[in-house]
Amino acid sequence: MTIDRRTFLTATGALAAGSALGLSMRSAAAQETLTGVTYLPPSYADLAYGSQGFVDFVNENHADAVAIDFYDSGRLLSADEQLPALRSGNIDFMFHTTSYITRSLPILGITGLPGVVGPLFENPDRMKRGTPLFQLVEEELKKNGLTVLSLGGGLLEPEYIWSTDASPVRNLDDIRGKRIRVVSFEATKAVEDFGGGAVRIPSSELYLALQRGTIDAAVANISTINGRSIQEQAKHVYRLPVTAFSIGIFVQTDRWEALDEPVRNAFLAGAEWFDENSARAANVDYFEKQYWPAFVEQGIEVIDPTEEELARFAEVSANVRTSWINEVGTEVGERAIALAMGQDA
Question: Taking 50 as the threshold, does the pLDDT of residue 13 lie above it?
């Protein structure tokens, strides 16, 4: 590891603290401090539950091996800065939503493919650590010098279409001619395939964009809707699984392999906790038990697509999947989709 001023201060600070507490030099030197980041703020309690829980788990249960210096809310790095910082070695690990980095790491697009994310969300065990799909993603990321420790144990609830009273979207045909907010490439293609105009707007500007009529609707996860109070503007939700994402723990492979075994074991134990709890807590404890009942009580119209509409959506969105397969390679892409759909590959 490159010794810079920050590393030096961290190491000398640990030694000084150890001496003050009467610890042996060996114990102080054995503990390594690793720096991790996420751009998500604690106010997104549903999404932050897993990342903060991982940090707390490792710090509380493996303090003899490693200490985590953790920065949330983009305090150290913005969302766009995290991946370059990880690759350059300026941070040791990151939590990141997959939808933000599929252009840099195409294999992660499997978490956002229209026609695939619905079945994958409904069967979270297909994405857990050690499964064939997880291992395939892991292998492909290593070709880019990265290692994924967990993808949260499953997808977060898919992103649906939330629309205003002035321009409700209740079926596939209603998408045509609408200006719809999107974030990911996969959602952009899906909206355009049905004649909608895709507009990239960050979540921080979404409330005003709907209020002013800049857009008619938004493709968004329920966490964004709740966290930004979008339910005050969006009065209809068409629960078509347009796209989705997961939250992963990523490390640089060379750095990971150079860590002492007790440090790696501590992180792997934390990754197991994250895998069991991150997506589950968000999807069940927050979304299912809290947010949806509150939204229904507030009078939001919830429209579920028919089986025919889901089939039509999957058929029309086939070009998005084909484009992704061409990007990651035919063998890898077809195998990943088959595994996500619960088929033998």
Answer: no
Cα 74 from Cα 233, distance rounded (Å):
27
Helix (H, G, I), strand (E, B) or coil at 244: coil
- Could you tell me if 317 and 189 are in contact, meaning their C-beta atoms sit under 8 angstroms apart? yes
CATH 3.40.190.170 fits 159-244+301-340, yes or no: yes
User: Which tokens is 315 given?
Assistant: 């058929």
pLDDT for the residue numbered 345: 56
Structure tokens at 320: 């998005």
Among residues 155, 337, 131, which one has the least CA distance to residue 244?
A: 155
Fold equal for 5-155+246-286 and 159-244+301-340:
yes
Whether the Cβ atoms of residue 123 and residue 250 lie closer than 8 Å to each other: no
User: What is the rounded average pLDDT of the residues 229-248?
Assistant: 97
Q: Which residues fall within 8 angstroms of residue 21, CB to CB, at 6 or more apart?
A: none
Domain ranges of the chain: 5-155+246-286, 159-244+301-340
Q: Beta strand pairing status for 93-97 and 247-252?
A: antiparallel
CATH architecture group of domain 5-155+246-286: 3-Layer(aba) Sandwich (3.40)
